[in-house]
């Protein structure tokens, strides 16, 4: 299996903290879901994607205000209408992994909201699948 590519960075700001003064898990999950959505759009060539499954989330460390967080994703499987990926987040300051998610599944939809076959079996690192239509 290929290695996760860490392409997204976030700065932990005061509004991202919980009552303990550490990174709120909900903020981190929002960042991951947003990045996973963008990744699914690019991989499936379809702007209409929805999150179907987010498996067990394993929080292994935390972050504090001012820390820089890296988020990485990798496609692990292509279904007929879906893509499955793995996600990790790590702290660039402490160099510790913060979180892992083994399975995030997105499904591509047609204009009526039905699953749409995409025909892909491998990930791309180019923008050749970037959907260009606006609706």
Would you mind describing this structure in some detail?
- With about 140 residues, the protein is an alpha+beta fold.
- It has one domain: Thiol Ester Dehydrase, Chain A.
- Helices cover about 15% and strands about 35% of the residues.
- Strands 1, 2, 3, 4, 5 and 6 form a 6-stranded antiparallel sheet that branches.
- Strand 5 and strand 6 form a beta hairpin.
- The radius of gyration is 16 Å and the shape is elongated.
The end-to-end span amounts to: 36 Å
Please state the CA-atom Rg, rounded to the nearest Å: 16 Å
Return the structural class: alpha+beta
One letter per element, helices H and strands E, the order comes to EHEEEEE
Number of strands: 6
Q: How confident is the prediction overall: mean pLDDT?
A: 93
Approximately what portion of the residues adopt beta-strand conformation? 35-45%
Total of domains: 1
In the CATH hierarchy, what is the superfamily? Hotdog Thioesterase
Helical amount among residues, as a percent range?
10-25%
Uncertain stretches: none
- CATH topology type: Thiol Ester Dehydrase, Chain A
What about the largest sheet?
6 strands, antiparallel
Helix count, DSSP H or I runs of 4 or more residues: 1
CATH architecture: Roll
CATH class: Alpha Beta
